[in-house]
## 1
Amino acid sequence: MYAQSAPLESSKLQIANEGIDSMQKPAPSDFPVHELIRERWSPRAFADKPVPRDVLRSIFEAARWAPSSNNEQPWAYIVASRDDNASFEKTLSVLVEFNANWAKGAPVLAIAVARLTFAKNNVPNRNAQYDTGAATALLSVEATARGLAVHQMAGFDPEKARQVFGIPAGWEAIAAIAIGYPGDPASLPQPLQDREMAPRTRKPINEFVMAGHWGHTAPFATK
């Protein structure tokens, strides 16, 4: 059974996670959704705690089983843990400065890469980025189930990533990702603390779920 949405006040609830001050920020959903969907969010504060290899294997295993057009599985991930300093610094170097300033606190960074053509015939795959996003969404849900947080970023330089990591032609870096255990918002500069603590908002489903004709709200999407 799906869990009911939590009151907005609980989005600022501080919890103890193995002795680490961290924060839960459940989505104030209008309709019931699974608790893993409610609990998934994108913090910038991460605990100084490594992610075990077996846990990393499981979250990328979840990405492996995402749906894709013709089962092409057009995704790849370049992953760096903080204990591999050279690779970690390379990944940080492709982020925009704003993101690098907080992402350096995450124990794991990754770059999601999509193959833009089908392997069997080199025909353009117009769903490559969509499918790679689906894989990362499943990765995020698995991470949430294991007490991790995932923050996806558009703020990085795809061409620099190509050069730094030797990404071949026909593949495109489409997102940067920070992975780790949620940390204490007080570890962030004040402007980021404010963003961390701000209420979560989303468009209501009646603004984007349509039926019959563009702009016509689906009947079930209204309360």
Note: The longest strand covers residues 171-180.
## 2
Amino acid sequence: MLSLNQRLSQQQKLSPQQIQYQKLLQLNTLALEQRIKTELEINPILEEEIELTQDQEEPEHDKDDELENEIKDPDKEEFEIEDFMNDDDYDHEKVYRKGEEETFQPIAPQRESLSEYLLDQLRMLHLDENLFMLGEEIIGSLNDDGYLKRDLPDILTELELFEHVKIDPAIAENLLKRIQLFDPIGIACRTLQECLLVQLRNSKSADQYYKYLAEKILVDYYDDFTKRRFDALKQKLNMTDETLKETINLIQNLNPKPGEGNIESAEMNQISPDFVIEKVENDYIITLNDKSMPSVTINKSYLEMFDNNRKRGKKTNREKETYKFLREKFESAKWFIACIQQRRETLMKIMQAIFHRQYEFFEKGPKYLRPMIYKDIAEEINMDISTISRVVNGKYVQSDMGIQELKYFFSEGLSTDTGEEVSNKHIKERLKEIIVKEDKRKPFSDEKLAELLNDEGIHIARRTVAKYREQLRLPVARLRKEL
């Protein structure tokens, strides 16, 4: 049976301005700069504000004439036009402005990417069109470390299927081996073993005797080498400690990641900090790194057009459409400018709160990082935890301690015997120090590392030590062993 009921309920909905603010809050400096440029393109009401020099400033009598012609919106439903009409009356606090001081950053010299560098070497082989196409596919299939992670037969199959190019597998293998001799040598190898062997066999500086032994190890006893079974290697090859040490050193001096550190993975993804913290005498100055941002303001010509359209009594359909369009764009422009300023204030408030809680870190370094969670900052500045999360994600701060993501400053803590809480990042730093100073002939096991930390008053389980060690990308004791 159908029935009709009336019910009163409350629902919380975000306004368009709040939604826009939340989106802007998530953007880092570079993304925000692009977002502002995009908004300038799609909203004709907004324009980039050009800072005038003293000689370019308007004469005072022109400003007085403008003041006499202030336009006021009689409806005053959502905004007031006079807020935007005059330079003197305009609320500059609501405009995203550049700082007064100019900053100049050196432009990095243009450099080739690794792919471009390899393609230049490929062209020097003067290959026919089909083989050059295969070479391009091989170079385009390298990962960040410089390894070929696609099977060569798969590349040949795709070339035949999509480009109607058929290449003999033996010829393709020969081309791959030629590419592996490009600079950096060992590039485009399929495994670490192959990469080390290519470098070793083409080394001209290595002693021939040690070179022979190193190749023997990599070909016949590779498993023993990777698992650091040095006693087994010494016995199987009938080597002295000194000979084994020289041979292992020769292998370890080869480059296991020939593609690492190239321009594509480093400079092209260079971090641009969102905040800069500088120490001046005994004080710290926190600034938002936004001086390269375009300053946005309201276009006066469109304001006048809107006002003229509004003053007309009876309007044609075209004039009504124009009025509606301009009003929507004015609202959008006003909201965008307000959101930019609100974002700036929120970011500064959160960064200042983080700085005050982590003051000792900026003074003394990572070992003095305090335990801190999002809730701590949210309660201190009376904001929602979700807002803190949006701000710290993907934002970076530059200080004397380097460049850190804001998330770096948040960590859980453990209690010591003295009752003091220490950050898990402090524990990781201490763990790293112990491992660096250990005797590499007898490296500490995870259980022993846990005992050493417990002796220092830091109560931690072996499995937690193992987890932190893995996060620090430090191998287990067996793989840290050296001769």
Note: The chain has a mean pLDDT of 79.
